[in-house]
Amino acid sequence: MFNNQGGTAIPEFQEIERRFLVDGREDKPWRTDSTVFAIEQHYGVGDHLDHRPGGLFADEQLIVTVTSEEEVVLTSQSDWTTRLRKRNEEWWLTYKCRVSHDTAFELEWSLSPERANLLLGKGPYPFVEKTRYAWVGTDGAVWEIDEFEGSLAGLVLAEVELNASTAKVELPPWIGHEITGLPSWSNRALAQTLTTRDGSPV
User: Fold this and answer.
1) Strand 127-136 to strand 142-148: parallel, antiparallel, or no bridges (unpaired)?
2) Phi, psi values for residue 128, rounded to 5°
3) Could you read off the pLDDT of 43-65 as tens digits, one per residue?
4) Cβ neighbours of residue 99 under 8 Å, at least 6 residues apart?
C-alpha cells in the first residue's frame, strides 16, 4: 500500500482510498513516466481455503502462513472478499473487508506460482484483466489508473490511497465522477458481470 502524503501513518492492514471514473477517450498522461503492471484478478478463491490457526490451507496443503497479528484481523471480520491476483509475474492472495465507504481491512500474501496454480485449478472464477499505471500527481500522491481489457475494454478507473478519510488530494484534470464506496463499481462486481475463464456464465 502506498503511503506518501505525510501525517499519520496508515494503520497496518487498513486501506483508505478514493476511486473515480476516467474518460478514457481523452489524453492519457498516465501512460508517460509511470510504472506499468499487467494484472488479472480472480474472485472467490477463499471458498476453497480452510482457515486454521497459523495458516490458510487447500486440500490439506498450506497455502500461506498467517501471523498472530493477521489472525486478529482475520478473525475479527467475517465478510471477506477473496482475490487471487497475478501482477506481471507475481502472484498475490488478498482478503479484503470494507468497514466504511472509503476504508477497508486488507490482508495480502505473496504466493508461489505452484500454490497460485493449485488455487486456480479449483476454478473457474469470475475475473477481470487490466493494465495498471502507477502515476505520481503534482502533489506527490500516487494514483493507480486501471485500463480494463476484454469485455470491459474502454473502462478506465483511477484510485488514490490516503492517510485518512479527511486527507486532501489534488485531483488531476482528467478525473471524472467519484465512485468511492459504490459496490457496483468494485472489481469484484465488475468481474461478476462477465464470464469465468472457461467462458461459462458467472
Assistant:
1) antiparallel
2) -130, 155
3) 999 999 999 989 999 999 999 99
4) 77, 105
pLDDT, tens digit (0-9, with 9 covering 90-100), for 101-140: 999 999 999 999 999 999 999 999 999 999 999 999 999 9
Cα–Cα distance for residue pair 20/4, rounded to 1 Å: 19
Neighbours of 2 (CB within 10 A): 16
Rounded-to-integer distance, Cα 43 and Cα 41, Å: 7
Assigned C-alpha cell, 183 = 459496490
3-class SS string, 154-192: CCEEEEEECCCCCCCCCCCCCEEEECCCCHHHCHHHHHH
CA–CA dist 19, 181 (Å, integer) = 8
Indicate the DSSP class of residue 141.
P
Domains of the chain: residue spans and CATH = 16-192 (2.40.320.10)
pTM comes to 0.87
Q: Three-state SS for 131?
A: strand
pLDDT in tens, 182-199: 999 999 999 988 755 555
